[in-house]
Amino acid sequence: MRSEAKQLTIGRLARAAEVGVETIRYYQSIGLIPTPEPTGTYRYYPVTLVDRIRFVKRGQQLGLSLAEIAELIRLNDGMHRAAIRGIAKRRMVEIDNRINDLQKIRSALATLVNRCAHTKSTLPCPIIESLAAQR
Amino acid sequence: MRSEAKQLTIGRLARAAEVGVETIRYYQSIGLIPTPEPTGTYRYYPVTLVDRIRFVKRGQQLGLSLAEIAELIRLNDGMHRAAIRGIAKRRMVEIDNRINDLQKIRSALATLVNRCAHTKSTLPCPIIESLAAQR
DNA sequence: GTAAACTCTGTACCCAACCCCAGAGTCAAG
DNA sequence: CTTGACTCTGGGGTTGGGTACAGAGTTTAC
Questions:
Q1: Which nucleotides of strand C are protein-proximal, with an atom < 7 A from a CB?
Q2: Domain that holds residue A127
């Protein structure tokens, strides 16, 4: 058994987690990952931070903001499972709303493109007309 | 018949179009609406700009960027109907892609929330686990 | 032992679409 | 004719998630 954990410089940590060095510094600046005290001049990072950063990246792929991800990390003590589900559920509601909005926009655009394609070219473009209409 | 068109100060124009004065200045700065030469000290704006600004706002509601809206305005000479449809169609493709992405994210979240709700509270939260999983 | 590659701190910049402020001058209602 | 509401120019700041230096010091591979 070795008692000291492996440590990485910031550049190695960045390469291991497949992010830029600046991303790590940014995450530190917003408190998403800790900033170890310098040992001598440089700071050394535990390898466990590689997983932490990948955690963040996967959360982003689910559309979570860094603030939400920070909250997930904070809540991950086994005591707050319902709160964690709450974050995921709120995100789902937002996604549902966004999908609804996009579908409305999509069908409005489809209608306009269709009308435009079937309107005599001597008449004004229905797309422009619809935007210009006073309501 | 009155020969001179009605003119508005920037504040009246803003109120008529229901935007802020700063929005108008911003639109001027990016060339979306013209900046009339000052008459004396102040600039005076034709009422037709009210419609132009509402046009912009409605385009934004369809998810168009200001750059795309500027292009629509530029193309609106009766000669470029196909190009106008092209803008709308490209936006539709982007929207379709976005909807697909969101639906994938939504179902991933739904699965996680469901699994989390049906996992013994003595076990680690599946939402956290899934984000922490090494892949 | 030296040169390349790295790290440190700090600052500034990117995107879009604005918002807000200061200070000076101007216009219009009463 | 005063006073309050407006306009002008020019600058700054906001949000989120970073990227890009600059300049000085440090470590490491050969």
A1: 6-9, 16-21, 25-27
A2: 92-135
Q: Which residues of B touch A55 (CB under 8 A)?
A: 131-132
Q: What percent of chain A clears pLDDT 70, i.e. is strictly above it?
A: 94
The rounded mean pLDDT for chain A is: 87
Residue B81 lies in a domain: no
Q: Say which DSSP state B8 is in.
A: E
How far is CA B102 from each of CA A40, A85, A92, B40, B99, rounded to the nearest angstrom?
47, 18, 9, 54, 5
Task: Look up residue B116 and give its amino acid.
Answer: C
Mean pLDDT for B62-79 is 85
- Where does the pLDDT of residue A5 fall: very low under 50, low under 70, confident under 90, or very high at 90 and above? low
Query: How close is the nearest chain B Cα to the Cα of A2, in Å?
Result: 24
Write down the pLDDT at residue B5: 62
Residues A57 and A96 in one domain: no
Q: Is the pLDDT of residue A125 over 70?
A: yes
Place of tokens 């996992």: B119
Strand D contacts (CB < 7 A) among A residues 58-97? 60, 65-67
- pLDDT of B87 > 50? The answer is yes
Gap between the Cα atoms of A92 and A89, Å rounded: 5
Based on the fold, state whether residues B56 and B98 are members of the same structural domain. Answer: no
Which of B103, B116, B134 is facing A51, going by the closest CB pair?
A: B134
Q: Which residues of A touch B61 (CB under 8 A)?
A: 105
A59 contacts B125? CB cut-off 8 A:
no
